[in-house]
Write a structure and sequence with these properties.
Elements: E1 4-7, E2 17-19, E3 25-27, E4 32-35, H1 41-56, E5 64-65, E6 74-78, H2 84-93, H3 96-99, E7 104-109, E8 112-117, H4 120-133, E9 137-139, E10 142-144, E11 152-154, E12 157-163, E13 169-170, H5 185-197, E14 202-203, E15 216-218, E16 221-223
Parallel strand pairs: 4-5, 4-6, 6-8, 13-14
Antiparallel strand pairs: 1-12, 2-12, 3-11, 7-8, 7-12, 9-10, 15-16
Helix pairs in contact: 1-4
Length: 225
C-alpha cells in the first residue's frame, strides 16, 4: 500500500505540486549538495544519503558544501531555519501551510534542485523521496538499485508530497528463526535504517515474557526472561 500521496496543483496559487511538462532535464551528475549552516543532524544525514546513493547510481561524487562553489548543478536542501534559499522558495510558492511536519517540496529549475521542508525530518524524507523518484527501491530486506537512474529530473517540477497516513510502521513478530529472536545488534540497526528509508515512523515488537528483555521483578524475584 502506498503510504505517501502526491498532491498535484492545478495553478500556481495552490502549489501543492505540479509538473511543468516541457523543458530539458536537470542532470545531478557530480552536483553540489548545498547544506546550509546550522543544520540539524537529520539534514546532515539526508545530505550524506544523497551523496552515497547518487554515487551508487553512477552520478559521480557529489560534494557536500555549505554554499554553492561551482557552476554545475546545485542540489539544495534544508528548512527555512537552516537555508535562506529554502525560506525564499517556500515563501514564493506559498507552500508553508501544506508541508506539515513530514511533508516536503521538490522544486526544479535549470541547474538547481531544491528539497524544502518545515522540519529536519521532512528534509530526510525528501531525500529518500527524491531517490525513489530516480528509481531507487527501499525495502526492509535491502535496497534495489537495478532500475535506478539516470540521475536526471525534468525542469519545472514543483511537487509537494506528504504522508497519506500519520502512523506508518512495522510489527516484527518474535518466536521465529527469521524474526528478531535471532537478530543481533547489526540486524536491528539495519532494520531501523531501512524503516527510515521507507519513511516509516513506528515500530511495535510482538514479544513474549520469555524473551530476555521482557524479564521484570516481582515480589523480589526476577520473572520471565
Amino acid at each position: 500500500m502506498r503510504l505517501w500521496m502526491l498532491v498535484a496543483a492545478v495553478a500556481a496559487l495552490c502549489l501543492a505540486g505540479r509538473a511543468a511538462a516541457a523543458g530539458a532535464d536537470v542532470d545531478l551528475t557530480r552536483a553540489e549538495i548545498v547544506l546550509g549552516s546550522g543544520t540539524d543532524r537529520l539534514e546532515a544525514l539526508a545530505a550524506r544519503e544523497l551523496q552515497r546513493y547518487l554515487g551508487l547510481m553512477g552520478a559521480g561524487r557529489c560534494r557536500i558544501v555549505p554554499q554553492a562553489q561551482g557552476a554545475g548543478t546545485r542540489l539544495v536542501l534544508g528548512t527555512p531555519h537552516s537555508s535562506s534559499d529554502v525560506a525564499r522558495l517556500i515563501a514564493a510558492t506559498k507552500t508553508a501551510g501544506t508541508l506539515g511536519d513530514e511533508g516536503y517540496l521538490l522544486h526544479t529549475r535549470p541547474g538547481r534542485v531544491t528539497l524544502a521542508a518545515s522540519t529536519p525530518r521532512g528534509v530526510l524524507w525528501a531525500a529518500y523521496g527524491l531517490l525513489e523518484r530516480l528509481g531507487v527501491g527501499f525495502f526492509l530486506g535491502g535496497d534495489a538499485l537495478a532500475g535506478a537512474g539516470p540521475a536526471r529530473l525534468p525542469e519545472g517540477l514543483s511537487l509537494v508530497e506528504r504522508p497519506a497516513l500519520k502512523v506508518r510502521g512495522s510489527l516484527p513478530w518474535y518466536n521465529f528463526l527469521d524474526s528478531p529472536t535471532t537478530w543481533d545488534r547489526d540486524d536491528f540497526r539495519f532494520f531501523f535504517d531501512q524503516m527510515a528509508r521507507m519513511r516509516m515512523n513506528f515500530v511495535g515488537f510482538h514479544s513474549y515474557d520469555s524473551e530476555p528483555f521482557c524479564a521484570y521483578e516481582f515480589g523480589g524475584k526476577l520473572i520471565g526472561g
